[in-house]
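Before relying on records like the one below, remember that each one covers exactly one chain. Contacts with other chains, cofactors or solvent are not represented anywhere in the record.
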Amino acid sequence: MIKLTQVSVELGFVETLHEPSRLVPWLMRIELLGTGGYHPNELRHTMCVFIPKYGIVFDAGTSFFRVPDKLQTKEISVFLSHAHLDHIVGLTYCLVAIAKGEIENVSLHGTPKTLQAIRKHLFAEPLFPVVPDYNYHELQNETAVGGGGILTHTPLKHPGGSTGYRIDWPGKSLAYITDTSIDADYADFIRGVDLLIHECYFDDDRKEWAQQTGHCHITPVMELARDANVGQIALIHFDPEVCRENPYDLEAARVIFPNTIMATDNMVIEI
């Protein structure tokens, strides 16, 4: 049986915090392997979101080490938001899984700037002398993914730049938005998705820090979810100095947008 913590028939999602022994066929399983920003703390590793059925990964932070144990495919496609270390360092963790044959192909997708930074700096010989045999792909306007899905992307405002993603499958959709300032330019990009996975680094009492660092604070994120008519929002990429399951006031957030969760590592959401 699936242990449920929240169910909405109207929205068609089931949120689970424990491994199910049997999955409902019409649900798509999305695993939030890492949900923190900047550096790990005792509760959260840095960003990685995984869709095991189709081998789709968003970002490869310190939680990327969890991917091999959850594989359902021999190939994975990693879509990178940007090249800051808390989002790419996990790309160095695949060697054992590749050597064992658990992973036969890793495709990295990102902007030319992001891919160049990984090749030149992350896999520079003095830092990491055994270079994985990855395939590098610059982002196209649209990319076909498993399940008949179409992946699109949009630029985000963040120091050095960042990229947000959306996947539309027949009857289901999600968007992944991290490392950005709130900007009306991407409201239409996320509009109407069943699940919005969105960064929320700061609480409202540090909104000045959000402006200075190119991140978000909670009230504008809630207002964005409400105004863009998304089905559910999972907040991610929290300040690691705030080491709590709910870093900010969840009930106050739900006053603005009721279908809100504050993600923790290994949380599973099914849409």
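Residues 79 and 150 are 13 Å apart (CA to CA).
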